[in-house]
Specification:
By secondary structure, this protein is of the alpha+beta class. It contains 8 helices and 11 strands. The chain folds into 2 domains: about 120 residues, GTP Cyclohydrolase I, domain 2 (2-Layer Sandwich); about 150 residues, 7,8-Dihydro-6-hydroxymethylpterin-pyrophosphokinase HPPK (Alpha-Beta Plaits), CATH 3.30.70.560. About 30% of the residues lie in helices and about 30% in strands. A hairpin with a 2-residue loop joins strand 10 and strand 11. Helix 7 packs antiparallel against helix 8. The radius of gyration is 23 Å and the shape is elongated.
Length: about 280
């Protein structure tokens, strides 16, 4: 991806652990790399097809001069988040905040915090088989729309399916959605659990009845294996109630392990089994 670089932007602001730093203020140096696609701007010579680095500089100045933080880590995190949320076409940012002559009681030139933050694409499977199923699914979608740092971009139609695992229960209503998010995988999982709990989800029987079930199927091309958390979802390739709605919105998304597309996985699952 292309990038636009801002180097050594000087800003006088009031950030630091010590009260005198918040009162007297000091100089900070900002470096930023803005990742975007500059192809259209390069072809058309139109500023609206790119990111206006002058406006970004002014936005950085406004943010750092109207807020006060104790930690550079907090200042960098909030500034990166604000720029990603407010800047069309900005996909990723590398941001460094330097603090020259930081008061550490020793001679030094500068200290700094440097972070990288970006938008991520996640695919979420959802299902319900208790009560007003459609209401629970629509409520979950709306809750994700209202979740900070999340943007729902595509939603499949709802699919009625037979129960999986424990078959002695009501049929499910299932679907999938595409989500752009600034949340980490663990942060996103926590938000999904919160939405499930708000819908009255109780984890009593594995694969049992539930008001709402939300699962992360993909998160970019991440492969994550932790004791209580795996991405991609370990059973997705065996579940037509996941693959069918996912195929509707992302048929050519590749599984990062098998490299098979959603379409290929669905075709294999749907193929007649031979003895």
């Amino acid at each position: 991806m292309d990038k636009i670089k801002i180097q050594n932007l000087e800003i006088f602001a009031h950030h630091g652990v010590f009260p005198e730093e918040n009162t007297l203020g000091q100089k900070f140096i900002i470096n930023a790399a803005l990742y975007t696609d500059t192809r259209d701007a390069g072809k058309t010579d139109e500023l609206t097809a790119s990111i206006h680095y002058g406006e970004i500089c002014q936005q950085i100045k406004r943010f750092l001069t109207t807020n006060t933080f104790k930690l550079l880590e907090r200042a960098a995190e909030c500034l990166a988040e604000t720029l990603l949320l407010d800047t069309p076409r900005l996909e990723k940012i590398e941001l460094e905040i330097q603090k020259p002559w930081a008061p550490v009681g020793l001679p030094l030139e500068t200290v700094s915090v440097e972070i990288e933050r970006s938008w991520h694409t996640a695919y979420i499977a959802f299902g319900s088989n208790i009560g007003d199923k459609e209401h629970y699914l629509n409520q979950a979608i709306e809750s994700l729309r209202q979740t900070p740092l999340c943007n729902v971009t595509r939603i499949s139609s709802f699919l009625t399916t037979e129960p999986y695992g424990v078959t002695d229960q009501d049929e499910f209503l299932n679907g999938c959605l595409e989500l752009r998010t600034l949340l980490t995988p663990r942060e996103l999982l926590n938000e999904l659990h919160r939405i499930e709990q708000d819908a009255g989800r109780e984890r009593i029987i594995h694969w049992g009845p539930r008001t709402l079930d939300l699962d992360i199927i993909f998160y970019d091309d991440l492969i994550l294996e932790e004791e209580d958390f795996c991405i991609p979802h370990v059973d997705m390739h065996r579940r037509d109630f996941v693959l069918k709605p996912l195929h509707e919105i992302a048929p050519y998304k590749h599984h990062p392990c098998s490299r098979k597309t959603v379409r290929q996985m669905l075709e294999e699952l749907s193929a007649p089994q031979t003895a």
